[in-house]
UniProtKB/TrEMBL annotation:
It comes from Aquimarina muelleri. The lineage of its organism: Bacteria, Pseudomonadati, Bacteroidota, Flavobacteriia, Flavobacteriales. Residues 12-95 form the NAD(P) transhydrogenase alpha subunit C-terminal domain. Its EC number is 7.1.1.1. Keywords: Cell inner membrane, Cell membrane, Membrane, NAD, NADP, Translocase, Transmembrane, Transmembrane helix. This is proton-translocating NAD(P)(+) transhydrogenase.
């Protein structure tokens, strides 16, 4: 409870960012989804590298931080791989019927 009280402004900021992100993504035209997803995958890759570097600096006896960092890296990798999968499927939709294999 003390953590929430000490970081209430940050919590409000994160909630505000979530709502703004939902509004922005909901209003993106369908033609822009593929390039935006590719850019998001590139950004996620950079974030993953930073996360791994941070995990390497956590003391080996702090199991809670290591587990949390491991889960974060796993979810980030899942996000990147899912993004590439969806981008690939979307790009296949633009192929002509003669080029499909």
């Amino acid at each position: 409870m003390e953590f929430i009280q000490n970081n209430l402004e940050f919590i409000y900021f994160v909630i505000f960012c979530v709502f703004i992100g939902i509004e922005i993504i909901a209003n993106v035209p369908a033609i822009l989804h593929t390039p935006l997803m590719s850019g998001a995958n590139a950004i996620s890759g950079v974030i993953m590298v930073g996360a791994v570097i941070m995990i390497l600096q956590i003391p080996s006896d702090n199991y809670l931080l290591l587990a949390t960092g491991g889960i974060a890296v796993f979810l980030g990798a899942l996000n990147i791989s899912g993004g590439f999968f969806v981008t690939g499927r979307m790009l296949k939709m633009f192929n002509s019927k003669n080029n499909k294999k």
